[in-house]
Model the fold of this input.
Amino acid sequence: MIRVLLADDQAMVRAGFRLILAAEPDITVVGEAADGIEAVSAARRLRPDVTLMDIRMPGLDGIAATRRLLAEGPVVTRIVILTTFDVDSHVYDALRAGASAFLLKTAPPEDLVQAIRVVAGGAGLLDPAVTRRVIEEFARSPAPGPVPPAVAALTERELEVLHQVARGHSNAEIAATLVVSEATVKTHVARTLAKLGLRDRVQVVVYAYEHGLVHPGAG
Done:
């Protein structure tokens, strides 16, 4: 059973999410929070698998709450950012804070459910449109920092997979491009994450663009 915490300052939004998730046999809502401070406290107390975190909340916004929770070790909860605001800086700030997924509240319910399952399973999820915004954000950013020494430990194939992940491609798409099985791609992704000390493929996107391993507009 996937345990979920709802953090949103609007009671009707929380009620809507609860209704959607109540229909799923493998998901249960274990608590609610109306602001960022409550969200941090509830997450520490309840240890949910996934927290659905709104960005704009009183007291402490969702990005600051995410940063506070994920600065702790071991990780208290994995976080899916949900917002009505389709703003580039929010996407970038949420991912930098350590969120595992970013979805607009206008996304269909099945996307929300999928995000929860993917994140609870230890992976990250970015909608292709969100990935494009991250890439656009880096296109406007200053020059990337130096390539970390850890990158040298990647094999040629792992580096290829990293490039594909950073461009928002799914495992199936990567498998087709590299003419390998999806299981092989999953193995390469797992090894890449371990070597670079990253948590999920969302962090790969940020890492790759921050360090100039891929470039906006590249094929």
In short: The mean pLDDT is 85.
